[in-house]
Amino acid sequence: MSNPAGFADSGEIADIVAYLASPAARSVTGAAWTVDNGAYA
């Protein structure tokens, strides 16, 4: 379950890490990812 804007839970972070470690993210280079549930859009 998602937390309010500004707070990401460990499952959300794990999902992003899993994506970035997968072949699907092979085109992602030099990116900074902000995980804040839209608090700072």
Descriptive report:
The chain has 41 residues and is mostly helical. It has a domain at 1-26. The chain has one helix at 10-21. The longest helix is centred in the middle third of the chain and has 12 residues, at 10-21. It is flat, with a radius of gyration of 11 Å. It starts with 9 loop residues before the first helix and ends in a 20-residue tail after the last helix.
Topology diagram in text:
Blueprint lengths: L9 H12 L20
Total number of beta strands: 0
Helix percent reads 25-40%
Regions with pLDDT < 50 over 5+ consecutive residues?
none
Shape: flat
Order of helices and strands: H
Distance between the termini: 20 Å
Give a brief description.
This protein has 41 residues and is mostly helical. It is built from one helix and no strands. The protein has one helix spanning 10-21.
Keywords summarizing the entry:
41 residues, mainly alpha, 1 helix, flat
